Each structure stands twice: as structure tokens, then as C-alpha cells.
Amino acid sequence: MQTENQDDPNSSNYAHVATESSAPTQSAPQPTTIKGRIEKYFELRERGSTWGTEIRAGCVTFITMAYILAVNASIISETGGPCDLPPNPGDCFGNSPTPECITFFECQEIVRLDLITATAVGALIACLCMGITANMPIGMAPGMGINAYFTYSVVGPWFEPKKVNYQTALCAVFIEGWIFILLSVTGMRIYIAKLIPPHLKSAITAGIGMFLALIGLQPAEGIGLVVSDAATNLTLGGCGHNVYKDGVDTVDIDKGYLLCNQFGLECGCAEGTSLEGATTWLGIIGFLIMVIAMINKVKGGIIIGMMFVSFVSWFRGTEVTYFPYNDVGNARFDYFKKVVNWHSIEKTGGVLFDNVNFAEGEIWVALITMLYVDVLDTTGTLYSMAQFSGLMDKDGNFPRSTMAFCSDAIGTVVGATLGTTDVTAYIESGSGINEGGRTGLTAIMVGILFFLSLFFSPIFASIPPWATGSALVIIGALMMDTVTEIDWRDHRQSFPAFLTIIIMPFTYSIAYGIIAGLVLHGIIFVTDKLFDFCCMRIGPLQKFNENRYKKEEDNNDVNNKNKDDKDDKDDDKTGGSDKNDIELVEQEANI
């Protein structure tokens, strides 16, 4: 008797008989409508999702990462872009800037608006590539961290320029993008990803979750509950988001003000003003709304919380307003009132080949640094998001990974051409995945919203950080679930995993966390081999080697027993998976 594979759709159990004389096997009927074909291509039903879920997930992902439109432009414009720098930057501070400084500031503002457009276009193209070719629910945009490295370490801020100019640094990003594409197409990047062991992949997801939570707690992109401190680096904040810059502002320091240095890079609270900031408390209220909505299975709980906080913050004359009555607030409100606005790129487009100088060694160091940071950042984010969305198989792979890796490389090339830095996968995608996003339709929706932001950028750029920060903290908490997949009794797993998790938030870098875990994992692997080699040849050490492996076997037995107990509990919760499996087999046999 010949046994056929009942799971194979091409087997005779699934074939359709055409005639008695000719019975060619055919696959399942193909959908005839455009909607059906789209659902089949994106595996909508196979992944247990719906159109409404994917659209909602795309909206949530976009809202949590919409801050990049304003933040990325603000950071990179600090370089001055291709504008002519003032000969004496010191003359530009104070109440009486020189004519050269005024001309520069006007050019810099145009560069900032150019970069908002460049950010949106780069994100749009990368998201469409990710959704259409890779079918992954991951949002793409110019990466935070790498843009700060580009601005402050490679080019330098306009008042302290370095040897590498803006155009040369952009050209390096462009070249790095093409190298990225080459690594992805040839499969070398996937090979690099496979070097990461499973327990480190789980640790990367948890570490990114902690990193997200830290971002959500800080003032720049969060609720401001954590601020800078000269003694301990970080401390309790909560004094709001109104910024007083030393040597620049002349307002009276009162509660609700962040005390920042001249360039706004280090901010803390005045003594005795912690937890007195109204915007921080509004962010906490938004956080509670999201938590309660999620506990009670309210769909769109995250977006409800963010929209509530944003709407309250758009009223002027309140302590929580995003548009205070000062120069910054007035500029924001003037931009917000436009509602619909289009700005074409004037200064930054296509300048990456102008005034290029690769003679300086610093640019080659920068190119290599940006390449490995981008590889590790994107690899870690893609694998953690694939794991978080349940798309990773038991071997640690996910579908269409090559196209996923190519998507951010293509976005990087496009972004560099328009004037911005590396495009990468965003960890904020976890918010959309938590809303149920499982296919590339989520990424396409994010891309569509970035396209709309080209026209409605005043609205999207006016979502305050205390509205998005709460969502980042919640997603960070959800991503910590992967720590249960690490065998904490096995120190060969626990120490590298723990180092990976804590290094990411403490160094503000995903790449550094991955490097730390891999280095320690490699050292442990080499020392294990040395122990084995020595113990096999030195008599007194053979007994020690036997005891060493015996303890490991005992630990494995305990872990396997705990895992079996957990599986039994899960079966009890679901009503018994064995019974369900038997019923499923009987149904297949009857087909």
C-alpha cells in the first residue's frame, strides 16, 4: 500500500479529477478577483490577519515612528548641510548675529525642510520594498543613532566642523548602501546573521525592548520621566518638556523646565522639580489608557492613547500644550496651522557628488563604521521583529529574508541621494505587530502614510513625544517575553544573553549589544574547546571534565522537565492540544 503525504497540496488527496481518461493534478483554485489575488500573495489568511488589522497596524507603526520626520531633519541639519558655514561661528550666538550668520540660518532652515521631505521619501520607498517584496510588517526610515554619528562624529555640528564635509559623508553613505545591496544579494548578509546563536537572537529582542523603553522614558522622544544627571548619568525626571538652554534663553526658570546645555544635548531637572511637569503626567495618563485598553482587548488601544494625548496637547495656553507662547512654540504652531504643505527639495538633493574629498582617512573609518553598525542594527531588528511576529521558523529563519535585507539597502541609496543617512528597520514596528500586523500590507500602509506626510507633514510633525513615548514603553515590555526562551541555568547562554540585553540600552546602540554578546559567546566557545583538548590529554583533569559534562546533563534534564510541565499547562489552557491534533488528522483523512 502506497502512502501519500496528506499535507502536500499536490498529492492525490487534494487533486481535482478532470476526466476519466485524463486526470492531471491541479493546485487549489486560484482566486479570480484582485482582492483575492492580493490576499493570496500576502498570505493574509495563512497568517491569520485581515485587511482591517493590517491597516490599523500600519497606522500604529507610523504614528510611533512619525517623530523621525522632525527629529532626523533637526539632527542632520545641525551639520549645516551644503550651506556656506559662517567664518566665525561664535558671532552667531546672542542677540546680534552677523549678516553671514543670518544668511546661514536661513539656508539651514531650508535644509531642515529638505530633510523632512528626504526622510519621508526614503522611508516611503523602503517601506514599499519591504512590504511588496519581503512581505514583512516592518516600518523603515532613516535610523536614529546613525544620524547622530553622522552629524556629531563624522561631519560635526556647524559650529565645530570636522575634516569631512557633508557632501563627502553623504557619498560614503551612498557607497555603503551599494555594499549593503551586494552583501544581501550574494547571501553574505544572511550568513552573517546565521552566526548569531538562537539564545542571542532571543536576547537581542529583549535588549531592543529595553532600548525602546529607555527611549520612551526620555524627553527627546518620550514622556521625560528619565533625564540626564552629571553624577549618575540618568535619574528621575518628570519636569516636563519645556527647554531652558543655558546661555541662550532668558526666561525665568520655574517648574516644568528642562535645564539643558547650550546645544540641548544634556538635559536635567532643577532641584526639587522632579515629577512636576504636566506633559510627563499627560504621557503617564496616555500610558494607563493603553494598558487598560490592551488588558481589556480593545482593538487599537495604543493608537487611542496616542491620539488622546496628541489632541489634548494641541490646545494653546495650557501647561501640556505642544505650542507654548515662545519662539519654538510659535514656529511649531505656524507650521501646524498650514495642515497641508508641500516642500520640494532645494539644497540637499544630489549634492553627494559635489565637493567630494576621500583623501581624509576619517571618511573611510566612517564608511566602515556605518556599514557594520547598519548591518548589525538591521539584522538584529529584522530577526527580533520576525520572532516577535511569529514568522521565524525553528531554525531561526524567516521568509524572503534576502528581500528584507535588500529593502533597507535600497532605502539607504535613495536617502543618500536626497540628503539623509542610512535607512534601517525600525524597532517601533513592534507596536504595529502587537496590533496584529503580520504581512507586508502593514509596511505598505506605513509607506502610504509617509507619502501622505509629504502633504500633511504639519499634522504628523506635531504629534508630541509624550504621546509616542508611552507606546514605546509598552512595546518594550511586550518584547521582554523572549527572555523565557533563554536557558538561564546554562551559563554558556545566560552570560552572553544578559550582556547583550544590558549593553543595548546602556550604550544606546543595538550594534554594541550584539557585538558584546557575540564576543563573549566566542570566548566561551574557544575556552570550552581548550578545556576539552587539555582534559583529554591530562589524566587528573579527565575526571574534572566528566563532572563538568555531568552537571550540564543534570541541568538539561531539569530544564526539559520544566519545559514539559509548561507545555502540559499550555495544553490544559487550550483544552488539550493532543485531542485537537487527533481531530485535525481525522478531518484530513476524510478529505
If you had to describe this structure to a student in words, what would you say it looks like?
This protein has 591 residues and is mainly α. The chain folds into 3 domains: 51-224 and 278-341 and 349-486, no CATH class; 226-269, no CATH class; 504-590, no CATH class. Helices cover 59% and strands 4% of the residues. It contains 20 helices and 7 strands. The strands form 3 sheets. It has a 3-stranded mixed sheet with strand order 4-5-6, with no helix packed on it. Strand 2 (226-229) and strand 3 form a beta hairpin. Helix 6 packs across helix 12 (361-388) and helix 6 (166-185) packs antiparallel against helix 13. The longest helix is centred in the N-terminal third of the chain and has 36 residues, at 99-134.
SSE topology sketch:
Blueprint: H1 34-41, H2 51-65, H3 67-76, H4 99-134, E1 140-142, H5 146-155, H6 166-185, H7 188-194, H8 198-217, E2 226-229, E3 233-236, E4 242-245, E5 257-260, E6 267-269, H9 278-295, H10 301-313, H11 327-338, H12 361-388, H13 401-418, E7 423-425, H14 429-434, H15 440-460, H16 465-479, H17 491-507, H18 510-537, H19 539-573, H20 577-590
Parallel strand pairs: 4-5
Antiparallel strand pairs: 1-7, 2-3, 5-6
